[in-house]
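Troubleshooting: if your tokenizer reports a length mismatch, compare your output against this known-good record of 212 residues.
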Amino acid sequence: MAKPSQKRLEHHLQMVAYDRQYDCFGTALAGMDEVGRGPLCGNVVTACVIMPAEPLFPWIDDSKKLSAARREEVYEEIFKHAIYIGIGEASPEEIDSMNILNATKLAMERAAMNAPASLCIVDAVRDLHLPFPISPIIKGDSTSYNVAAASIVAKVTRDREMVEMAKLHPEYGFERNMGYGTAEHMQALRTYGPTPFHRRSFIGKLMGEGRK
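Known-good structure output:
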């Protein structure tokens, strides 16, 4: 794996320093993040990760700041070394029935319920029902080393799911848009209608228009 830039190394040290303020860093400090709140289809996916104090991985960062290829590489390293990884999902049906925020909370609870954590840093979301305290912070995926690791696990997991979904419904371009409302995706919805994976509460107006 290529050596990160000096700027990235400095940011990496800042994230590690943030987590080191907690006595349980490296043993029982978890980070949690989600991906997929905005797309028109697919699950919302969350990950809860506990990374060890050693070895440290300087490429761990907010998943949005990494290329798809780099995310895949770092994802594999996280799975080799993490103390704990939990993945939780909420389906389109659950999103439609309880709204995206509550579905995200449900997915987070599924990801973290069995984590051997003393504390979990969560990217922004509050009021989770877990057997340990949480610390919600804004922009957690670019602030906390463990949350950044969780952001990578969640992103790669969901992207892989969307690539598989694209094989079933190639006309929507899911492997490119990951379920977001791109022009290609919107046109496919108007032409073919929704798939079983679409969130009806997100596309109600389009569904009412019928096929064109």
